[in-house]
Amino acid sequence: MSGQSLHPPLVGAPLLPPMAPPSGIRPSPATWIRKNLFSTPFSGVLTICFTVLAAWLLHQFVSFAVLDAVWAGGQEQCRANPEGACWPFIVEKFDYLRYGAYPVSERWRVDLTLAIGAVLIAWLLWKRAPRRNVAALLFFVAYPVVAFVLLRGVASLDLPVIDTVLWGGLLITLLMSIVGIVFSLPLGVLLALGRRSELPFVRAVCVIFIEVVRGVPFITVLFMANFMMPLFVPDYLTPDRLLRPLIAIALFSSAYMAEVVRAGLQAIPKGQYEAAKALGVSYFTMMRLIILPQALTIVIPGIVSTFIGLFKDTTLVAIVGIADFLRAVETARVDPNWAGPTISSTGYLFAGLVYWIFCFGMSRYSQSMERALARGHKS
Amino acid sequence: MTRMNLTNNEACATLVLHKKIRGTKMQAILKGLVGAAVGLVVSNASAATIENVRKNGVLTCGTNSATAGFSLPDNEGKWTGFVVDYCRAVAAAVLGDAQKVRFIPLTPKDRFTALQSGEIDILAHNATWTSSRDTSLGILFAGTYFYDGQGFMVRKAENVGSAKDLDGASICVTQGTTTELNLADYFRSHSMTFSTVGFADEEAVVKAYDEGRCDVLSADTSTLNASRQRMAKADDSIVLPELISKEPLGPAVRQGDDHWLNVAKWTLLVMVAAEELGVTQQNVDEMKSSDNPNIRRLLGAEGSLGKDLGLGDTWSVDVIKQVGNYGEVFDRNIGKASPLKMERGLNALWSEGGLQYAPPIR
Amino acid sequence: MSDVLLAAPSRRSLSLHDAKVRGIIYQLLLAASLLALAVGIAVQTASNMRARGIPLSFGFWNEAAGFDINQTLIPYDTLSTYGQAFWVGVVNTLYVSLLGIVLATILGFVVGIARLSPNWIVSKVAASYVEIIRNIPLLLQLLFWYNAVLKALPAPRASIELPGGIYLNNRGLIIPEIQLYAGAGTVGLAFLAASIFCVAFWFYARRAQNRTGKQLPGLWVSLAALIGLPLAVFLLVGSPVSFVTPELKGFNYRGGHQLYPEFAALLIGLSVYTASFIAEIVRSGIQAVPKGQTEAAHALGLAPGKTLRLVIVPQALRIIIPPLTSQYLNLTKNSSLAVFIGYPDLVQVFAGTVLNQTGAAVQVMAITLSVYLAISLVMSMAMNAFNQRFAIVER
């Protein structure tokens, strides 16, 4: 965008260096305040009210979480302090919150799995990283297998099998979200294509699936998946208790994803389809190389917000007795040994921070993608 | 909305190509679906539970999610408690190993659904045996492991001496329990009003009472006592003297599997019989060579109880050796050797003034 | 499809090489396998249910429920039937959802417009609200609100007394009950008459404005009619209303209407959470209105408030309404999280206690899901109809 890329210079001489902006245009702080905070009397009143409100909220937060909080010590110090957070509680419960009841001697496997996942995700998301397609392949194909082997264990590899009822805490939350994210996007694309198919029955099936799933509360689906499923299908078709909510969450978000993808497909000009067909490109090649790359790019914000919704929805598995992160916080906070005036608030604050960091991180990344793509269009 | 209709303005050739590719894929999906559907129809509706347990090598047992003394997981996921030990006894009987149990924590409202659907093999919950549960839920109770009654817990500061003074109270209860129903009966028959605050989760109920949302916490007295362990200010509350109901708590199994019902029933009865006959975890091996024919039959040295139940000859020894007799299990988890320190009361043997009584083993 | 037929060769062969024929065959196969799957599940379920003695009928509907529900908008007591318990659940779900929708819409529009405010601090506070609230799971927020609401309030004996016989404690907000006497109906009729007058006046005022260009003071006339007429009648018939003030008797306040903490927490949680999404929808909707519209309005001399109300918002609504509909549906579905904090909504009462008592899991879940689907359907239809009013009239 810095002028030189647009046209080749007419003359061989180099361009003049850019001039500094005239000094009068950069506003002084006083001008800025007048313009942005006190432009009208009403605006001034609002400024004062909102400053007071923001300052009060910030003060409440900081004094609870930092200034008045108990940082060292144990149960007694926390019981004696009704004002601030009780961080020793979180420190003691930290392992439980991360792993649930996963056996202590095997927890390195969880750490390793998450570390590999983190490296792959960083590789995938870092825009200037080399060979991102390899990362994608590893993450979407190899990683699920590795994660399964590591987490569940294979006796022949000297990794004892850990029953999924023992899994818990942040492990479950991350597992649910990653599995949901990996499967909901392809399923959503298939459903969206099915909904736009010209075979009326295929279309009807997809529409009914999408609309029914979007019309019912997730917890009722979870309830049926985990407490009623053996009633509907024979034993040998009933998957593991942890797997069922995973499938449920992937199917559930795929319906939402389908609607996001459909919006993207609708936004692609008809000419793109027609041009592809005129060139004799087959349906799948057309979708893979022409339509979907464009359609998915347009709806990146929608896809990411579906991911964020999925991440937040993992909290609902608590209804079927699976100990995800929030459920672990709930269990920890009712521990009578730690009964204290601020234990609940501390637990919720910590949980809130953890969820917020993940979700906010995702939404920031999608915004930066959006900006990068918008730049790409302009130049 | 610019909905596109691909069929329009389209050359036929492309259409053919497009459908061909989609078709092969759909064929694969179709094959899978048809296979699944046929499998569904042909499959046998109810396989014998005991065979499933043996095949899986593990007993899936539904228990309370967290009731101190009855069923409580620690931070490492190890379950302890009175009903937990019953599950372990069944696992010892069927699989010969009391550790081969998979515990599924269930809220009271979900427990019968999980059992009737087949999600769990046996329900060992603080569930009350009632006629309607036996007849209309598709489940059967296999006995009574704890005789209990519903009571009320109030704060001392309220100065309430009797349940008859509870007019107008807000009462915290767990959803899907007999507690909910008994309250309605009790307050109606005493012409009092009340208002319930119900939660699915027992922990939430106790927490709500503890934080002052209700005046009264009502549950089986065993649960009330266990709840004290979860309260910040347990000493501020008392349990009122009245018991307003009979609450025989017992294990339950699905209907239509008599064999499994027998296993569940006799595992419990063998534990009671062992206490009656003085067979304990320590002396069970010596007792095998006892002269008492009742003991010999109990431990499989004589008679054919094990074979008739489809279990091994050593099943009762496994149960007693790995888990203990009824009295030992009681004392260890909720009785005098536990923090709860409950009296045996109605749960003493019949010979000591209680109700626990095992039919003859012969 | 007609285009394809025209384009295709006129001689139609019924061979497998015909794409149309193959399409039909594939669809038939798909239909058959789905049907087989459905039949298979139905057969399996029925045989399982029969083998295990689970009730297959809806006979429980008219049996006595025998449990208490603390918050009911329709008559219910412990002798009522399961069917009545179902309706209590439905009404409670609709009640909290509709109130939540109203509150979330108001809050969401305010925050969304505030995010675009030229005032730096206002827009930053609004942005922080959105970024914090929408990135934290709703369940966590509900648990927080429930605990925050309960913790902050005193026990009944130490109730906070508000003017007008209103009490606030950890059992809820207790307000005086209105008791009506003979003549109260007349006041109601007067209000109805005033409402009809208002609508008529509004039509008249519009027509008058179209004709003469003069604006009539519609708001003031309406307010005067809506308040004045019923008030006059009220005084004429001699105040046929009395208030029953709640009294502390025994454990709790007797008499009066009660707003329970569970309801308050659910309502606050749902509204605050959904408002953060609505705010984003409103912001992007307003930003999508071309800037020239604002400039033109300003050039015509419209004040900023009027520009927003008469020029920007009506155009933005067209973009806002479809995503707004799905937020409304989300709010309604999210109200089922009531089970976690003990508010007796449909899932808590019907898919919870009733299912447990009757054991009719399949029937109860089928009914519950149908109710949610019906609510979605009705709400989508209503919003679509509303949207059509705002759609651009193409010439």
TrEMBL record, chain A:
It comes from the Bacteria. Its main location: membrane. Gene3D superfamilies: MetI-like (1.10.3720.10). One of its GO terms (cellular component) is ATP-binding cassette (ABC) transporter complex. Keywords: Cell membrane, Membrane, Transmembrane, Transmembrane helix, Transport. GO terms for biological process: amino acid transport. It is found in: Cell inner membrane; Cell membrane. It is a multi-pass membrane protein. CDD domains: TM_PBP2. InterPro entries: AA_ABC_transptr_permease_3TM, ArtM/GltK/GlnP/TcyL/YhdX-like, MetI-like, MetI-like_sf. One of its GO terms (molecular function) is transmembrane transporter activity. Residues 170-359 form the ABC transmembrane type-1 domain. The chain crosses the membrane at residues 36-58, 108-126, 133-154, 166-193, 205-225, 245-265, 286-311, 347-365. PANTHER family: INNER MEMBRANE AMINO-ACID ABC TRANSPORTER PERMEASE PROTEIN YHDY, MEMBRANE COMPONENT OF AMINO ACID ABC TRANSPORTER. Belongs to the binding-protein-dependent transport system permease family. HisMQ subfamily. This is General L-amino acid transport system permease protein.
Automatic annotation (TrEMBL), chain B:
Keywords: Signal, Transport. InterPro entries: Bact_solute-bind_prot3 (IPR051455), Solute-binding_3/MltF_N (IPR001638). Residues 58-287 form the Solute-binding protein family 3/N-terminal domain. SMART domains: PBPb. The keyword Transcription regulation does not apply. Signal peptide: none annotated. It comes from the Bacteria. It holds the Pfam family SBP_bac_3. GO terms for biological process: amino acid transport. Gene3D superfamilies: Periplasmic binding protein-like II. The keyword Transport applies. Belongs to the bacterial solute-binding protein 3 family. This is General L-amino acid transport system substrate-binding protein.
Automatic annotation (TrEMBL), chain C:
InterPro entries: AA_ABC_transptr_permease_3TM, ArtM/GltK/GlnP/TcyL/YhdX-like, MetI-like, MetI-like_sf. PROSITE patterns: ABC_TM1. Its main location: membrane. The keyword Transmembrane helix applies. GO terms for biological process: amino acid transport. It comes from the Bacteria. It is a multi-pass membrane protein. Residues 90-383 form the ABC transmembrane type-1 domain. Keywords: Amino-acid transport, Cell membrane, Membrane, Transmembrane, Transmembrane helix, Transport. GO terms for molecular function: transmembrane transporter activity. It is found in: Cell inner membrane; Cell membrane. The chain crosses the membrane at residues 21-43, 85-114, 178-205, 217-243, 263-282, 337-355, 361-386. The keyword Membrane applies. NCBIfam families: HEQRo_perm_3TM. Belongs to the binding-protein-dependent transport system permease family. HisMQ subfamily. This is General L-amino acid transport system permease protein.
